Amino acid sequence: MQLKEKVVKKIQPINCRHFIDGQYVDSIHFKTFENINPATEEVLGTVAEGGKEDVDLAVAAAKRALKGPWKTFTTKERSNVLRRIGDLILERKEELAVLEALDTGKPYELALEVDITRSAYNFHFFADFLTSMGTEAYQQDDKAIHYGIRRPVGVVGMINPWNLPLLLLTWKLAPCLAAGNTAVMKPAEWTPMTATVLAEICKEAGVPDGVVNLVHGFGANSAGAALTEHPDVDAITFTGETKTGTAIMKAAAPTLKKLSYELGGKNPNIIFADSDLDEVVETTLKSSFMNQGEVCLCGSRIYVESSAYEAFLEKFVAKTKELQTGDPFDANTTVGAVISKEHYEKVNGYIQVAIEEGGNILTGGGRPKEMEKGFFIEPTIITGLDKNSRCVREEIFGPVVTVIPFETEEEVIEQANDTHYGLGTSIWTNDLRRAHRVAHQIEAGIIWVNTWYLRDLRTPFGGMKQSGLGREGGMHSFEFYSELSNVTIKL
């Protein structure tokens, strides 16, 4: 069943301009670049290419807005604005899902049911959380009372990735606004459209001019670099690859900006023989290939206890072959296109490396024969690789997973932790004691037992090692987006 007639024709791609001080504007030097549809390789439109001067204007607007009407908003008024943003996202969810699918190549249904719905919930969650949070207070015998007060950190620069463009941008912007800050957003150059619409939604919801600003452009030596180096930007929140995070840290060091990072991952999926293999396979299909495997939390290293290895592979390969790779606007599509030609070549390069290293391709390994254009890669399962293989150790960020057998609990814990990354892990077992025992030894910020991608937004989200810096979620987000002062009253 094709969805094109229903949605694509009535919702057209947009040309993307900057949004500064409440207005859409062109770049100062009128530079633009093309926005390419990864599923068709066609040009969707043009995007304003920002640079230092554009960032300067946006930061100046954000700095002025800190002292404007936004400063006088009560907690309840900010909460109401956040809730209205979430409501407007839902009112325009079909439009936003089309733009997201066109930009990213992901299935439209995935964008609609996960990305856009969750984006609205991010604002609804922090609208409620804002009005329910308290502060710490201590009485020091009969000498004094101490209590904490929170104030905005200031102007926040947001550098966003291309894999979950609106979802991850709203995950940052919602708590940023809840805490009373102003923002300058720099979306990924490959996925500019939903961020452009979000700026308009914020204004319609009652966000004062200058509070939310948007500058399109590239990273190094361009808009991204100008934002991280700017002396009037007080904090930077970044989601993306580890190498870029290192560059941002260097650029931010001279002005001692607060930093929050959610970086790469090479996440282990540990499957013990006592688990329910049908349940494991059903969830592993999602944790391996959802969003074309372009999710930092995907379980790309699959470890299976030897006694269940063959049975798992038989079920997993059979179910993977049922997945349909193709047109994002076909209702039967489960795997869309990867983000760009550059990334397509990178992922295919890793598949070739796996073959050269003696790996066995059990399914996938190429593009669907019927897809003449677009950056499509079939879901790929690789076995037979050594633990030191590049495909086992390096982040591929595509629909490619490796499966490796293990004998003992100690062995799999050692292999799971043998990585520079430490973002997420899934553990599958029906042994409660083992679940606790293994979870306590895994070096990762997020550990799931018998599930994956299940989140409560109050809980800490983030990674360790080279997978991140800091935590987000609930009060953890407010720790980053606010400055805490202690007031002491002598009794």
What does this structure look like?
- The chain has a seven-stranded mixed sheet, sandwiched between helices.
- It is α/β, with parallel strands linked by helices.
- The chain contains 16 helices and 20 strands.
- It has two domains: 4-263 and 466-490, 3-Layer(aba) Sandwich (Aldehyde Dehydrogenase, Chain A, domain 1); 268-456, Aldehyde Dehydrogenase, Chain A, domain 2, CATH 3.40.309.
- Strand 1 (18-20) and strand 2 form a beta hairpin.
Considering DSSP H and I runs of 4 or more, what fraction of the residues is helical?
Answer: 25-40%
Largest sheet: 7 strands, mixed
Q: How big is the Rg?
A: 23 Å
Instruction: State mean pLDDT (0 to 100 scale).
Output: 96
Number of domains: 2
Find the CATH superfamily of the largest domain: Aldehyde Dehydrogenase, Chain A, domain 1
- Structural class comes to alpha/beta
How many β-strand runs? 20
Count of helical segments? 16
Task: Give the termini distance in whole angstroms.
Answer: 73 Å
Q: Please state roughly what percent of the residues sit in beta strands, choosing from under 5%, 5-15%, 15-25%, 25-35%, 35-45% or over 45%.
A: 15-25%
Which shape, going by the Cα principal axes? Answer: globular
- In the CATH scheme, the class of the largest domain would be Alpha Beta
- Order of strands, main sheet, comes to 14-15-16-13-12-17-18
Highlighted features:
491 residues; alpha/beta; Aldehyde Dehydrogenase, Chain A, domain 1; Aldehyde Dehydrogenase, Chain A, domain 2; 2 domains; 20 strands
Could you provide a short overview of the structure?
The protein has two domains: 4-263 and 466-490, Aldehyde Dehydrogenase, Chain A, domain 1 (3-Layer(aba) Sandwich), CATH 3.40.605.10; 268-456, 3-Layer(aba) Sandwich (Aldehyde Dehydrogenase, Chain A, domain 2). It contains 16 helices and 20 strands. It has helices at residues 4-7, 52-65, 75-91, 93-104, 108-132, 165-178, 193-204, 223-229, 242-252, 277-289, 306-322, 341-356, 390-393, 409-417, 432-439, 474-481, and strands spanning 18-20, 23-25, 32-36, 43-48, 137-140, 144-152, 155-159, 182-186, 212-214, 235-239, 258-262, 268-271, 301-305, 360-363, 380-383, 400-406, 424-428, 446-449, 468-469, 482-490.
